[in-house]
């Protein structure tokens, strides 16, 4: 009997060991890129192997994603980058799209005051002035090591050679084909039948990249490319002019930084809501010993959900483009304020969202995404989230230039209180104005521990971005997981309104969900999509790097 018992224990330990082992991501010694596609990660890694740094790899990886992952990788969108240099200096770059100069507050509302369906999501009126190329070239100019020519060339080669379509990609292209054709016309590149295993070549995109390679930022925002872009957008009823393109500039911004337990977090500042909302949530949960409650236990889910409820209520009311609205950041992230926000939370019963409004703060008012993480051999780290917003953006494809255009205008609040495509309800702070940047949830983040680089993390997922980044960090530091395991673990999400908690399918026990229901939580079980698609890098105790490439997509790591 004793023997059987000992053997069983050994078996259990052995199995635990193998499952842990299977759950370990790629481990490298010096440098790594984790992104939505292996082609992009490999090109980024190769650039670093040639002596380039993380910023060179950023340009190559991002542009490769536009080739290999047109679902979200882009030239026609925008994004954010958070960096931490090898000497510990941190910063961030905002290359978010902007409303065109001709945009107006009520441009998506009819004469009766109702939001016009699809206008902010589909077709040329939904497009914000793209920021990606300005962002990449700004980052490269300030911190890159290799000449632009060398950084862009492998991407041009990839576009010419083509990319093999994966199963997941074939499925998404099939699902979106009709709507792409409806928007872009039936002679568009994606009108043809595309199957898994097909090779898609992008000669037009290669030509566009060549112009950018030779002329830099002006190659996109002025001249031939700009002219073609403006013609296409205006032909389809959009507002963007050549003046809009010529005026676009990426902006360096001071990142949001704060402490959570023994970690120092560096994340994106407005116009992304990511950093401030993450800070509010983490500070609200910090007083609770969630590591003792256990990963995804009822009590942990309650604490996190209630903190999310309160933080998103603030997010939706107070946050917007800081160049246009005053954001009371110091108050929103103040420990005393956040303690008060959690005052009415009890483990006995859910707080209904109707009982949680934005915090009472006196202010003087002046009135489908992708993420990649990079660590280079010099010790620099960058975290980049970039987006077209919806899958294939507004579905308008430039057959002349070889890329999709965003539908980022939907991230504005078209009308206060009316939810956008992510169910987020906004307020005046995020209303439309000419040249204003729409509020984002993108949360590219870097974590330091003991003053050293510890993790680079981020994800797509609209409003679920912030809560996915949150759970990935907690999984590693509160629940002791490795990077891959932390990324793969089942996630849940709450965003104040709608007043429901989303759970990934098959990730949570019936018992946990029943207990939560009995406490008054509304649980969305019918329509539980995957939540986030995290790509992250963890520096291990032995200084090696472990990748977390999300199993939910084709995501993959490369490095050396
Ligand atoms: O900036 C934002 O918050 C959104 N445009 C992100 C969209 C997104 O993550 C879509 N991917 N699933």
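Q: What amino acid sequence fits the structure above?
A:
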């Amino acid at each position: 009997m004793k023997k059987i018992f000992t053997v069983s224990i050994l078996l259990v330990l052995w199995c635990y060991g193998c499952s842990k082992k299977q759950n370990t991501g790629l481990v490298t010694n010096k440098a790594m890129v984790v992104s939505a596609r292996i082609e992009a990660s490999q090109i980024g890694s190769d650039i670093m192997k040639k002596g380039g740094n993380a910023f060179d790899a950023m340009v190559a990886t991002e542009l490769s994603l536009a080739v290999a992952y047109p679902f979200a990788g882009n030239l026609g969108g925008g994004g954010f980058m958070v960096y931490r240099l090898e000497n510990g200096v941190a910063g961030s770059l905002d290359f978010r799209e902007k409303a065109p100069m001709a945009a107006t507050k009520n441009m998506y509302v009819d004469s009766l005051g109702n939001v016009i369906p699809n206008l902010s999501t589909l077709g040329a009126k939904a497009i914000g002035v793209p920021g990606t190329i300005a962002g990449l070239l700004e980052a490269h100019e300030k911190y890159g090591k290799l000449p632009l020519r060398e950084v862009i060339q492998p991407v041009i080669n990839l576009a010419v050679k083509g990319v093999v379509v994966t199963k997941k990609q074939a499925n998404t292209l099939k699902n979106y084909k009709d709507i792409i054709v409806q928007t872009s016309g039936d002679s568009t590149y994606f009108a043809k039948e595309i199957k898994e295993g097909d090779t898609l070549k992008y000669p037009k995109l290669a030509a566009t990249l060549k112009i950018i390679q030779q002329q830099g930022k002006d190659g996109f925002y002025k001249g031939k490319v700009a002219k073609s872009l403006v013609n296409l957008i205006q032909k389809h009823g959009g507002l963007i002019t050549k003046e809009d393109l010529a005026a676009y500039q990426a902006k360096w911004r001071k990142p949001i930084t704060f402490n959570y337990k023994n970690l120092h977090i560096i994340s994106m500042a407005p116009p992304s809501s990511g950093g401030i909302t993450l800070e509010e949530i983490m500070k609200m949960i910090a007083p609770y010993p969630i590591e003792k409650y256990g990963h995804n236990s009822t009590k942990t889910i309650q604490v996190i959900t209630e903190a999310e409820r309160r933080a998103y209520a603030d997010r939706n009311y107070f946050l917007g483009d800081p160049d246009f609205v005053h954001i009371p950041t110091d108050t929103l992230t103040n420990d005393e304020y956040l303690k008060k926000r959690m005052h009415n939370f009890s483990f006995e019963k859910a707080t209904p969202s109707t009982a949680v409004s934005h915090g009472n703060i006196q202010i003087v008012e002046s009135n489908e995404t992708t993420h990649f993480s990079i660590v280079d051999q010099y010790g620099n780290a960058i975290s980049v989230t970039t987006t077209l917003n919806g899958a294939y953006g507004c579905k308008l494809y430039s057959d002349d230039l070889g890329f999709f255009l965003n539908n980022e205008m939907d991230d504005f609040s078209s009308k206060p209180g009316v939810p956008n495509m992510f169910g987020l309800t906004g307020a005046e702070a995020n209303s439309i104005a000419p040249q204003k940047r729409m509020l984002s949830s993108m949360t590219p983040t870097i974590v330091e521990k003991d003053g050293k680089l510890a993790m680079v993390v981020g994800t797509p997922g609209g409003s679920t971005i912030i809560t996915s980044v949150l759970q990935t960090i907690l999984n590693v530091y509160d629940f002791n997981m490795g990077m891959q395991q932390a990324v793969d673990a089942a996630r849940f999400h709450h965003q104040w309104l709608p007043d429901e908690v989303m759970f990934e399918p098959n990730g949570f026990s019936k018992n946990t969900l029943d207990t939560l229901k009995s406490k008054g939580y509304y649980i969305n079980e019918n329509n539980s999509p995957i939540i986030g698609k995290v790509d992250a890098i963890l520096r291990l105790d032995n200084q090696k790097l472990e990748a977390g490439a999300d199993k939910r997509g084709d995501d993959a790591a490369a490095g050396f």
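Q: And what stands out in the fold?
A: The longest strand covers residues 78-84.
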